[in-house]
Write a structure and sequence with these properties.
Order of helices and strands of chain B: EEEHEEEHHHHEHEHEEH
Oligomer: heterodimer
CATH superfamily of the largest domain in chain A: MetI-like
Shape of chain A: globular
Helix content of chain A: over 70%
Largest sheet of chain B: 6 strands, mixed
Number of strands of chain A: 0
Strand order of the largest sheet of chain B: 6-7-8-3-9-10
Largest interface: A-B, 20 and 25 residues
CATH class of the domain at 4-74 and 150-253 in chain B: Alpha Beta
Largest sheet of chain A: none
CATH superfamily of the domain at 4-74 and 150-253 in chain B: P-loop containing nucleotide triphosphate hydrolases
Radius of gyration of chain A: 22 Å
Number of helices of chain A: 10
Distance between the termini of chain A: 19 Å
CATH architecture of the domain at 4-74 and 150-253 in chain B: 3-Layer(aba) Sandwich
CATH topology of the domain at 4-74 and 150-253 in chain B: Rossmann fold
Number of strands of chain B: 10
CATH topology of the largest domain in chain A: MetI-like fold
Strand content of chain B: 15-25%
Order of helices and strands of chain A: HHHHHHHHHH
Structural class of chain A: mainly alpha
Helix content of chain B: 25-40%
Number of helices of chain B: 8
C-alpha cells in the first residue's frame, strides 16, 4: 500500500515538475502536461494528422503478428537446442554472440529483404522479441532438477509425460519471464521500425506529428504508446506472478 | 518367487567401481537396512532395484522378474532429499503416481488424504513444499511412495536431512507404519541407531567398490528399547565394522 502511494506520488510529482518547467517556455517546443488531455480529445479531429484509428489498429496487428512469430520461433529453437544437447552445444554460443549485437544494425537488411511495408516491421519485432524467449527456454531447461525427472521416471512416467509434468512446470517461471521480455521487445521492434522509415502505423503518426512541429500531438502519442507498453507488461507481470505462486 | 534377488551385480561409473559382484536376497515383508560408509554404492543398489540404474554385470529380480526399467507396480522409492515437486501442493505431490496410473481424481484425493491424515498432515494438504517443515516434507515424500501401494518400498536416507529429534520420531512412526503395511523395505542410512531401531536385517557394506561385509539379524521385538543391553552390544559390533570401512573409505579419498 505504501509502495503504491509512493508510486502515485512520484507520478504526480513528475507531472508537476514538468508543468512548472514547461510553463514559461515556448509552447512550440515545450509542452505543458495540463494541455495534453485537451490535445488527446481533439486528436481524432485534427485534419492535418493521418486517421489515427487506422494506424493504431495496423500497429496492433503488426505487434500481434511479430509476437506470435517470435514466440513460435523462440520456443521451437529453444526446445530444439535445449533438448538435443549436441545440437545445443554447437549453436548456443552462436546465439549468445548474435544476441550481443545491437539489433538495429540488422534493420537496413530487413528493409532490403522485406521492403518498407508491414513485413519489415514485423520482421524487426520478431528479431527483437525472439532472443529473450529462446534464451529463457534454454536457461529454463538447464534449471530442471535432475532428481525430479528421476522421481517421475521411477513412478513410470514416459518421456512426454516427464516433459509435460516435470520439465514444463519446473521451467515455467523462467520461460514466462522470457516471454514477457520478448513481448516488450517485440513492441519496441515494431514501434522503432516505424520511426526508422515507414508510411503507416502509430510510429509513423508519431514521426509525422513531430515533423510538422505538432509537439502537443506528438507528446500525447508518445505517452499513449508508453502507456500501452506499460499495460501489456503489467498484464505479463500478473501472469508471471500466477505461475510463480508456489515459489512465494 | 517373491521379494528381491540381487545376483552378482557390478556397476562402474567410468573408472570407478561403485558396486562389485554383490549378491543379496530380500524376502517379502522384510525390513533390510544397507549400512556403510559414504560412496559405498548403497544408493546404486537401490537404483538397481528401482530399475533406474542398469548393472554392468549380474541381474536383479523383483517378484521373480528380471528388472529392466522402473516398475511402479512393484517398487516405490523415497528419495534422499524428498524430491517433492515444488510447484505441486502436498496433496498433488502425493497423487502424482496415481495420476500417471490414470486413477480418477476423486479416488486419488481420497487415497492421498487417507495417507496424510494419520501423519498429522490434515490441513496441510494445500500447502506447497516450501511452506512445510523439513519433517513434514519428508512425510509427504513417504506418503507419495506409499500411495503407489507397492509390495516393495525403497528408502534412500529418507531422514538424513532432519535433526536428531525429528529423526527419532520419524523412525518410531515408520516402525508403526510398517507393522500395519507389511511391505518389504530396503532402507539406506548412515545411522547405526536408525538401523538397529528399524531393521530385521542389517547389511554392512564395504568401502568402494561396495560388497557385503557382514549381515546381522536383529531379532529384538518392536518397539525396540534402544537402551537395552542387547542393543548396546549390537551397536558396538556394528560400529567396529562400519568404522573399519569408513577408515578405508577416507584412506582412498586422501
Amino acid at each position: 500500500m505504501t509502495v503504491l502511494a509512493w508510486r502515485l506520488g512520484l507520478l504526480v510529482g513528475f507531472f508537476a515538475v514538468w508543468e512548472a518547467v514547461a510553463a514559461p517556455l515556448n509552447p512550440l517546443f515545450y509542452i505543458r502536461p495540463s494541455s495534453l488531455p485537451g490535445a488527446l480529445l481533439g486528436m481524432w479531429r485534427v485534419p492535418d494528422l493521418p486517421p489515427l484509428g487506422e494506424h493504431v489498429w495496423l500497429t496492433l496487428q503488426e505487434i500481434a503478428g511479430a509476437y506470435v512469430l517470435a514466440v513460435a520461433a523462440g520456443l521451437w529453437l529453444g526446445f530444439l537446442l535445449g533438448l538435443r544437447r549436441t545440437v545445443g552445444r554447437i549453436y548456443e554460443p552462436l546465439l549468445a554472440a548474435l544476441y550481443a549485437v545491437p539489433s538495429v544494425v540488422w534493420y537496413p537488411s530487413l528493409m532490403l529483404f522485406f521492403g518498407l511495408g508491414s513485413a519489415s516491421k514485423i520482421a524487426f519485432g520478431v528479431l527483437l522479441g525472439f532472443f529473450p524467449i529462446v534464451l529463457s527456454v534454454l536457461a529454463g531447461i538447464r534449471q530442471v532438477p535432475a532428481t525430479l525427472v528421476t522421481v517421475a521416471q521411477s513412478m513410470g512416467a514416459r518421456p512426454f509425460t516427464v516433459f509435460r509434468k516435470v520439465m514444463l512446470p519446473a521451467m515455467a517461471s523462467t520461460m514466462v519471464g522470457g516471454l514477457r521480455a520478448g513481448l516488450a521487445l517485440s513492441v519496441v521492434g515494431v514501434l522503432v521500425s516505424k520511426n526508422l522509415g515507414s508510411r503507416a502505423g502509430i510510429g509513423y503518426v508519431i514521426n509525422y506529428a513531430y515533423g510538422l512541429m505538432m509537439t502537443r500531438e506528438y507528446a500525447v502519442l508518445a505517452l499513449l504508446a508508453a502507456a500501452a507498453v506499460l499495460a501489456l507488461d503489467t498484464a505479463g507481470a500478473l501472469v508471471e506472478a500466477r505461475v510463480k505462486r508456489w515459489a512465494g | 518367487m517373491a521379494g528381491i534377488q540381487i545376483e552378482r551385480v557390478t556397476k562402474r561409473y567410468g573408472a570407478v567401481a561403485a558396486v562389485r559382484d554383490l549378491s543379496l536376497e530380500i524376502n517379502d515383508r522384510e525390513f533390510v537396512t544397507l549400512l556403510g560408509p559414504s560412496g559405498c554404492g548403497k544408493s546404486t543398489v537401490l537404483g538397481m532395484i528401482a530399475g533406474l540404474v542398469r548393472p554392468d554385470a549380474g541381474r536383479v529380480l523383483v517378484a521373480g522378474v528380471p528388472c529392466v526399467g522402473p516398475n511402479p507396480e512393484q517398487v516405490a522409492l523415497v528419495f534422499q532429499d524428498g524430491g517433492l515437486f515444488p510447484w505441486r501442493t502436498a496433496l498433488d505431490n502425493v497423487t502424482f503416481g496415481l495420476e500417471l496410473r490414470g486413477v480418477p481424481a476423486a479416488k486419488r484425493r481420497e487415497i492421498a488424504l487417507g495417507l496424510l491424515e494419520p501423519m498429522g498432515l490434515r490441513g496441510f494438504e494445500r500447502k506447497y513444499p516450501r511452506e512445510l517443515s523439513g519433517g513434514m516434507r519428508q512425510l509427504v515424500a513417504i506418503a507419495r511412495a506409499l500411495a503407489l501401494d507397492t509390495p516393495i518400498l525403497l528408502m534412500d536416507e529418507p531422514f538424513g536431512a532432519l535433526d536428531e529429534q525429528t529423526r527419532l520420531l520419524m523412525g518410531e512412526w515408520l516402525v508403526g507404519i510398517r507393522r500395519r503395511a507389511r511391505k518389504a523395505v530396503v532402507f539406506v542410512t548412515h545411522s547405526l541407531q536408525e538401523a538397529i531401531a528399524l531393521s530385521d536385517r542389517i547389511v554392512v557394506m564395504t568401502a568402494r567398490p561396495g560388497r557385503i561385509k557382514d549381515v546381522l539379524d536383529v531379532t529384538l521385538p518392536f518397539p525396540r528399547d534402544l537402551n537395552a543391553p542387547e542393543v548396546t552390544e549390537l551397536r558396538a559390533k556394528l560400529w567396529e565394522q562400519v568404522r573399519e570401512e569408513s577408515l578405508k573409505a577416507m584412506g582412498t579419498l586422501s
